[in-house]
User: Which sequence fits this backbone?
């Protein structure tokens, strides 16, 4: 059994704060500062440029990629790190489209994260007028998979509602129709058990600063199925995805396997932070994590629905249909979240009316979650959100 008291002791959370926003920015693991200080002082400071070899910086994207791979069911050597998730979405999509070059349509859903849709639109514009992005409601995806679709591009867990797609089922349907699938695991990696190998995924991408706690702007990951990796032609053909970057050839030749999805110089300080942040997962069983997450969600959901009739549940009621978050709708959602943050419970708001709460068993206990629900209930009962300072919107919501 995973010892969640032990994992909680590995995080540095501010006194008196209950953090229900680890789905947006994971908190600081205690060992990160020392590791980054070591990378700065002993590596960058003392080794200077020799750190690329002596400190193993050049291999860090692959080494860290394997640690994330373990959490998503990927074989060693099939995941690499770098850039931001938006860039990795673009790379995966461009390569998938090229593998299915007789077709022109990308299918996605209206619950997808806007950046994924924007990247797809931009890619279509570059490729030419015959390419298009088609979006339908999440529940209608299954019915729209046919032999016109080149690539199905989905985020497994909806960032607003927490609704979870049936990954294996949709992959089977897409493959039967001759389409490839790109999965965005931004709200899955470190949140729920994922098995990209067992589900026969083609491409998967995700970020590390949400449930994997790498800190603001941490690098993204990309997985390519081993059966495709040697066929994939990178659209962003940077020198570190070249077979021999230090030959400085004038022609691009892709590196073997997943290495070709690297682009440019990796962000070593952020990778060092992520490498340290991943230590906690060495002692976590993903099935235990899922069971605990559902337990926390149920405590919150039952208390809030009983005490706050004005908050409409935006997430599926059925536990198995959710990822690791619960959302409610309210016309004054922004002000309610601000009042809650004022009371020491951090959740977040997503336009137009979503109050969003993430459940992260690594550092949240059942008592924390019950206390957070009670504070939300008190704010709603007393109408304490209805103050000008809670209504004033900040730049980042
Ligand atoms: C968080 C998130 C992103 C953010 O992309 P960045 O390029 O890292 O800013 C993209 N897609 C999804 C589905 C997300 O949840």
Assistant:
């Amino acid at each position: 059994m995973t010892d969640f008291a032990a994992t909680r002791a590995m995080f540095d959370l501010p006194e008196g704060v209950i953090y229900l926003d680890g789905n947006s920015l994971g908190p600081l693991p205690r060992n990160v500062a020392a590791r980054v200080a070591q990378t700065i002082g002993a590596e960058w400071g003392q080794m200077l440029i020799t750190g690329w070899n002596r400190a193993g910086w050049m291999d860090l994207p692959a080494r860290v990629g394997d640690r994330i791979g373990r959490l998503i069911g990927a074989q060693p050597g099939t995941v690499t790190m770098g850039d931001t998730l938006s860039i990795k979405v673009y790379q995966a999509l461009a390569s998938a489209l090229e593998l299915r070059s007789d077709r022109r349509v990308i299918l996605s859903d209206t619950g997808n994260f806007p950046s994924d849709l924007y990247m797809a639109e931009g890619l279509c514009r570059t490729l030419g007028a015959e390419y298009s992005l088609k979006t339908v409601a999440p529940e209608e995806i299954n019915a729209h998979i046919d032999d016109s679709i080149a690539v199905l591009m989905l985020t497994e867990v909806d960032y607003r509602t927490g609704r979870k797609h049936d990954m294996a089922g949709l992959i089977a349907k897409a493959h039967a129709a001759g389409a490839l699938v790109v999965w965005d695991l931004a709200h899955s990696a470190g949140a729920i058990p994922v098995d990209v190998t067992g589900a026969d995924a083609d491409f998967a991408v995700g970020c590390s600063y949400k449930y994997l706690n790498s800190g603001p702007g941490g690098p993204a990951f990309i997985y390519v199925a081993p059966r495709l990796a040697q066929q994939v032609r990178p659209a962003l053909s940077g020198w570190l995805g070249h077979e021999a970057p230090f030959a400085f050839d004038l022609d691009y030749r892709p590196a073997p396997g997943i290495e070709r999805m690297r682009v440019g110089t990796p962000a070593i300080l952020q990778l060092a932070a992520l490498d340290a942040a991943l230590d906690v997962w060495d002692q976590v069983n993903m099935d235990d994590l899922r069971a605990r997450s559902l337990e926390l969600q149920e405590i919150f959901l039952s208390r809030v629905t009983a005490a706050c009739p004005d908050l409409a549940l935006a997430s599926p009621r059925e536990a198995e249909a959710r990822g690791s978050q619960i959302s409610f709708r309210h016309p004054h959602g922004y002000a309610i979240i601000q009042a809650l943050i004022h009371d020491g419970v951090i959740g977040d708001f997503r336009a137009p009316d979503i109050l969003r709460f993430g459940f992260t068993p690594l550092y949240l206990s059942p008592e924390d979650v019950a206390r957070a629900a009670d504070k939300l209930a008190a704010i709603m009962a007393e109408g304490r959100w209805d103050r000008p300072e809670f209504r004033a919107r900040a730049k980042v919501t």
Notes: Residues 84-86, 113, 115-116, 155, 159, 184, 186-187, 207, 220 surround pyridoxal-5'-phosphate (CB under 6 Å). The mean pLDDT is 97.
